[in-house]
C-alpha cells in the first residue's frame, strides 16, 4: 500500500498532531443534551439488569449470612485457583437448586424492584457524571477533560445516586433473600416490604446499608476513571490512523468497539475486585432482622468486624465469583448500550 510521504512523520510529531487535533475535537465536539445521558443510562441499565438477573440472585444469596452455614459445611480449598473454581461450581449449583426447588421464576426474583432501582440509578448516575464532567471541565479545567475531572465527577455522581436509590436496593435485597422453600414468604410484594420495614424499623430502616453504599462510591469512581482511560486510548488510536492517512476499515471499527467493551469489562473487574467487601457488608446491613425483630448488624464497622470474626477474610469475599460473573458482562452491556444510544441521540 503506497502512502503519501508527507503523511509519514516521526512518532513524536504524530503524537503532537494527535494531541492538537484531540484538543480541537474537544472544543468542536457537539455537546450532548443533558437529557440524553439520562435516557441512555436508563435504557442501558435496564438491558444489563435483565440479562444478568439470575446471577444477581445468586450473588445476593452468597453474600448473606442466611446461606453461610451451607457454604461453611462444604469442604474444599479456601484459596487459590481451586477456590475460584469451587466458587464457580457453587454458583452453578445454586442456580440449578433455585430453579429446581423454587422454580425458574425465582431466578428473576427481585427483578421488578431491581429494574425500578436500576433504571433511575443508571439514569441519575450517567446524567450526573456526563453533565458533571462537562461543567467541571468548562469551569475548572479550560474546557478539557482529564483524569482529575473524571475522578471528581464520578465521585459526586456516586454520592447522588446512592442517596437517591438506597430504599429501592434495600427492598430488592430483602425480596431476594426471602425464603420460600418450606417456609412462608415474609413479604408479599415490594410495597408490602416497604410497609413492614417502616413499621418495624422506621423510615431509617429504608436507608440501612447507605453507609456501605457510600463506601462503594470508590468502586464506581475507579470504574469511571479506568473506563475513560481505555476510551482515551481507543480515541488516540483512531486519531493516529487518521494522521497517518489511513482510512478506517470494518476491522478497525471492530477493534475500536471491542476496545471500549473490553475496557468497560476490565474496568469493572478491577474496581469490583478491589472494593468487593463493601458489597457483602451492604447486603448484610440490608437483610431483614431475625425472627425476634433484633437486627444482627447495626453499623458499618460492627458488621465488618462481625463478618471477619465469624467467617474470616473469606467471609468478606463470599459470592465474589458470582458477582464478577454478573458485573463484568453487565458492564460491557451497560457501557456498550450507553455508547450506542448516545451515538444516535446524543
From TrEMBL:
GO annotation terms (biological process): pyrimidine nucleotide import into mitochondrion
Keyword tags: Membrane, Mitochondrion, Mitochondrion inner membrane, Repeat, Transmembrane, Transmembrane helix, Transport
Organism field: Schizosaccharomyces octosporus (strain yFS286) (Fission yeast)
Region of interest called Disordered, as start-end residue ranges on this chain: 1-32
One Pfam family linked to the record: Mito_carr
Top-level taxon of the source organism: Eukaryota
Main localization of the protein described in the UniProt heading: mitochondrion
Protein name: Pyrimidine nucleotide transporter
Membrane topology qualifier: Multi-pass membrane protein
SUPFAM superfamilies, sorted: Mitochondrial carrier
Solcar repeats (start-end): 32-135, 145-233, 255-344
Compartment(s) of residence: Mitochondrion inner membrane
Amino acid at each position: 500500500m503506497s502512502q503519501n510521504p508527507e503523511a509519514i512523520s516521526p512518532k513524536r510529531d504524530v503524537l503532537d498532531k494527535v494531541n492538537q487535533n484531540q484538543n480541537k475535537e474537544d472544543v468542536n465536539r457537539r455537546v450532548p443534551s443533558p437529557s440524553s445521558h439520562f435516557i441512555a443510562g436508563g435504557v442501558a441499565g435496564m438491558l444489563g439488569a435483565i440479562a444478568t438477573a439470575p446471577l444477581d440472585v445468586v450473588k445476593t444469596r452468597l453474600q448473606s449470612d442466611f446461606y453461610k452455614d451451607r457454604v461453611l459445611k462444604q469442604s474444599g480449598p479456601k484459596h487459590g485457583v481451586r477456590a475460584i473454581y469451587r466458587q464457580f461450581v457453587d454458583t452453578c449449583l445454586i442456580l440449578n437448586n433455585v430453579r429446581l426447588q423454587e422454580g425458574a421464576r425465582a431466578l428473576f426474583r427481585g427483578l421488578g424492584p431491581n429494574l425500578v432501582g436500576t433504571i433511575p440509578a443508571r439514569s441519575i448516575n450517567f446524567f450526573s457524571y456526563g453533565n458533571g464532567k462537562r461543567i467541571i471541565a468548562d469551569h475548572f479545567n479550560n474546557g478539557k477533560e482529564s483524569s482529575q475531572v473524571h475522578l471528581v465527577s464520578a465521585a459526586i455522581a456516586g454520592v447522588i445516586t446512592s442517596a437517591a436509590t438506597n430504599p429501592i436496593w434495600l427492598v430488592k435485597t430483602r425480596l431476594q433473600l426471602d425464603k420460600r422453600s418450606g417456609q412462608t414468604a415474609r413479604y408479599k410484594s415490594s410495597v408490602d416490604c416497604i410497609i413492614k420495614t417502616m413499621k418495624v424499623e422506621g423510615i431509617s430502616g429504608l436507608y440501612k446499608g447507605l453507609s456501605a453504599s457510600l463506601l462503594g462510591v470508590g468502586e464506581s469512581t475507579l470504574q469511571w476513571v479506568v473506563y475513560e482511560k481505555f476510551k482515551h486510548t481507543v480515541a488516540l488510536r483512531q486519531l493516529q490512523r487518521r494522521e497517518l492517512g489511513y482510512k478506517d476499515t470494518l476491522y478497525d471499527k471492530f477493534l475500536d468497539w471491542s476496545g471500549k467493551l473490553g475496557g468497560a469489562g476490565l474496568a469493572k473487574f478491577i474496581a469490583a475486585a478491589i472494593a468487593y467487601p463493601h458489597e457483602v457488608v451492604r447486603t448484610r446491613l440490608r437483610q431483614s432482622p431475625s425472627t425476634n425483630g433484633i437486627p444482627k448488624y447495626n453499623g458499618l464497622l460492627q458488621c465488618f468486624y462481625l463478618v471477619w470474626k465469624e467467617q474470616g477474610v473469606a467471609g468478606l469475599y463470599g459470592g465474589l465469583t458470582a458477582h464478577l460473573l454478573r458485573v463484568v458482562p453487565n458492564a460491557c452491556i451497560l457501557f456498550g448500550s450507553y455508547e450506542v444510544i448516545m451515538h444516535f441521540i446524543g
